[in-house]
Queue: 2 jobs
Job 1
Amino acid sequence: MKAVVVLAFGDVDSARFEEVVDPRPGVGQILVDAKAVDVNFPDILYIEGRYQDRPELPFSPGLGATGRVAEVGAGVEAFSPGQRVLVLPRYGAYAEKVLVAANECFPLPADVPFDIGAALGLVYQTAFFALIDRGKLAAGDVVLVLGASGGVGMAAIQLARAMGARSVIAATRGSDGADFVRKVGADVVVDSSAENLRTRFRAAVLEQSSGHGADVVIDPVGGDVSAAALRVTAWCGRFVVVGFASGDIPKIGANYLLVKNIAATGLQWTDYRDRAPERAHRAQEEIFALWSTGKLRPEITERLPLAEYAAALRKIRGGQAKGKTILLTQHGAN
Ligand SMILES: NC(=O)c1ccc[n+]([C@@H]2O[C@H](COP(=O)([O-])OP(=O)(O)OC[C@H]3O[C@@H](n4cnc5c(N)ncnc54)[C@H](OP(=O)(O)O)[C@@H]3O)[C@@H](O)[C@H]2O)c1
């Protein structure tokens, strides 16, 4: 099979797309013929060796894919060859054949196309647990989503609406982002690239929420916009740290937490997959069910051959990608 292989940590162009030996499933493992591979921001960090999880070299990056089960190892009873699946492994999904542990494998319903299924994996699970488990989202809440045109942002907008938020305010940089986040379901948009961010951002969010502020903030960005968002978190609000796409890990102002009884919390989705796999499975079922009823509509803005993974990652690193990018293998998307 062919796979993207990292031989030494370096920039995204330093990995190779090359022929490697087909893996075989061991005890409790499943081998999947991948069709659609999900591209995610952390893939860059894996290739550069800057992710908290640093695989042994050589390895293939990639956190999600869909396809059909090719072979199961001893002890695997829940999956069988030919079955349609979504896989969310620690890494290794940038490959024509992906080897996963059974808890990293999720049934893909017959009505969900492979490319859509790949897009509905990691970022929707992340947004799901960020909103519901960490953010304690309740019907009628005002939700503020930062980095709203990115993968996690898009998923958070759509899930917040599906879960009964009163209003979803999307913070995005510039007019391209604004058009995109409206298209994927934001009620209102605030510009997070404006001058005097702290003042203007506060005014915009308060105006859009009739002075209430945000009950739940989903923050995959960090940096200045994160600090501005903390200032507009409502009384008893929940501020959920999801990631640092800006490259800047924010310092949370404890004075804001105290004054407005705000809870600041973090979300690491892989911990749910590894420590509470049954919850991750239930969440994925719910996500697919919401898609089937038309409540979730992941926007795949680019579909590229797997060999062009580096171009996809460069665009993400430049902050230019919107929604989801999906890589297709030679097995095709159907
Ligand atoms: N904790 C977890 O379990 C978990 C899971 C998945 C992802 N993450 C993390 O969450 C973050 C976002 O992931 P993602 O999949 O949504 O990534 P993405 O698709 O690349 O989106 C990131 C978004 O952040 C915004 N942004 C603001 N400033 C930026 C800057 N200086 N450079 C790049 N982007 C900037 C952009 O949206 P606007 O233009 O709309 O502002 C961009 O689209 C990443 O840090 C990722 O590692 C965490």
Job 2
Amino acid sequence: MPLPSVRRRRSRPSLELPIHLDRARGHLAAQLTDALRAAILDGRLPSGARVPSTRALAEDLSVSRTVTAEAYTRLLSEGYLTSRPGSGTYVQALATLTETRHRAPGTPERNAAAERRSPPEVKPPVTAILGKDNKEWAAAWRHVARTQPPNRYLDPAGEPELREALCAYLLRSRGVRCDPGMVVITSGTQQSTDLLARALLRPGKPFAFEEPGDPAVFDTARVNNLYCVPVPVDGDGLRVTDLPTGPAAPRLVHVSPSHQFPLGHRMSVDRRIDLIRWAEAHGSVIIEDDYDSEFRYDGPPFPALVSLAPRRVAYLGTLSKVLTPALRCGYIVAEPELARATAQIKGQLDGPVSWPVQAAITHLIDSGGLERHIRRMRQHYARVRSILGEELACGQDIAHVTGLLAGLHAVVHPLRPIDIDQAVTRLHTLGAPVTSLADHYHASPPTPGLLIRYGGLSETEAARLAHQVIQAIRSAAT
Ligand SMILES: Cc1ncc(COP(=O)(O)O)c(C=O)c1O
């Protein structure tokens, strides 16, 4: 059946694109958003093109105006469209993705940055968020207790039922399309990163990551004797122009595009495209650490980077934020060859994740319990982070706050010189879940700041934490 295309009208801008909306599937606004986004990314809707009004497009597609308005609002918030008051809505000026590929040859063997950083002495505070409301959790474990465990060694990639359940969950929650052959169940993001590093890099080869970033990633580089390439981030995410090119280009780059860890920025669309183009040009793989996108308080998260370039991006998810880090369970989604290679290494290192853990998570996903739990947790943390934001604003004369857009942590940046170690020590004696931002820098001189984690806190505890932080910053002023 030919696709109905949007008709041209002389008096107003029109899309000459075949847009097929499958009414039987429902979610028309989401389908339209995806179709327009794809057209912008592959250049069929060129930069600067004016798009029809929501009313005109609704008429052309025979859908309600709510559908077109919702799609435009989403694309405006993602940065694919821009609106000019009194003039209309336009495609944002973006680079498009191209398909250039070549491999980077050999690379240097050692670097000072890898040697400068010593391992952290203490693990940062744990962000357990199960709370008292653990109905779904209890039901899952009752189900496991009633089930006969398998009398065999398991597939190192993970049980097929869990991989299947995760594919359906990722499609619903993140729009990520994958099949079970692309999924590997791991004991968390830290192991996922380690497996990818082992699969793709040999000792001495370069491995790029965000600066500041996640100390667990620095640890992975160190234990695998990799050549560390810390790459600065700014408000748009990792500075792609600072990535080495040519023979020194790293084959693996770790990023947290949905909510940069720790600073909290969201990687802009342009930066995403630049990063994918860089990876395609150098035959490199991007690790997308999507550790907390379930906790987005101002609407759905940006589409995952992996949806833009499934062959270039290995997507990492974890149960540590939505359930508890004590569970030790996460997953990799990668193209099938890379998924097989990482599963094989997992089999050689420690074997599959234990059956009861896999069975409990499968039950949580299949019963809808995980998503119900996440919805409740999201509501709870939306309230907690508002209180935290309001109370921290009482100290706006001495500090400003970033990263409250999403997730379960924020960064407080003092506006005047302070003795940050003194502030951290004081806060630790009060039991506050705070670390120095300096712990998240690998090589470059750190910007002073405090990282506060509010996973596991009630509203009252969050208000108290904010007061303690402001007080500690005031007292540590030099
Ligand atoms: C940036 C980042 N990625 C991933 C995780 C989760 O790691 P894991 O799954 O190994 O517990 C965390 C936990 O705090 C994190 O901060």
